[in-house]
Amino acid sequence: MAGTTSAGPSDDPAAVLQTLIDSTSSYYLTQSEQNLMMMPASPALWTVEEGEALFHEPRGPNEVSLEGCDFGKGPGVLEGAYVELPRYFEDTGKVMDLGNRLIHCMKTLQGFADDDPAITRIHGSNTDHMRLQAYIAAQSNGMNWNPPMDHPLEKALRDAGEVLFYRRSGPFDFNCAACHGDEGKQIRASVLPYANNPKEWTKAISWPSFRVGHDNLRSSQHRVSECYWQMRYPEIIPGSDLSIALISFWTDLARGQPAILPDLKR
User: Domain Cytochrome c: where (predicted)?
Assistant: First the structure.
């Protein structure tokens, strides 16, 4: 299961998913015929186009675009940047995911204030955040997850995420592994992805993704928050070290598998 399935750079998320389906017998990947039919015309693709325009538009008090933002591969370089996040950024001294890095650049480059709606509104297809995240992430579609583990803080966050993934707590003594630690588990009619099957797990962590049931594009941070709510844990702070630790660990589990960006989920 640990072998890689490189689809290579692609403009078509549906084609990346089909490459995975053709290489494995996973029922998780094929459980929704309707979603597979919808993927080529996913509403998320409109959000990607909106994000492209927003990325290049001079905005904020400083009237500059985000083309000077470094997402890990140099200012303005987006291809392959998302699949190498979260990562350590020397200019902040922190491990950051895409959402945190966007906020940093919108504040330092464009001059947005902490309480500006462009900064505070982070969930939903109609927010600047999701438009920008969709566009930036899509530039890594079909590329293999490859989060760096060179800096001690990158390793520390990844290891902390592993502890959180398996630690049982909360009012129902729950953990992430309760849903994703064994093969073939279901919640009602939905088959759950198995964390130790990278070809399933890459789809599970391919966010941003259009949630059909929400009629909205959702981010990795939203997924973490929703999982914590479902386990009845205390509310997680978006962009916190805890959230980034979990994202660091789950991305590392999918290492070497192609990202489906943007994906479409139930």
Answer: 50-144
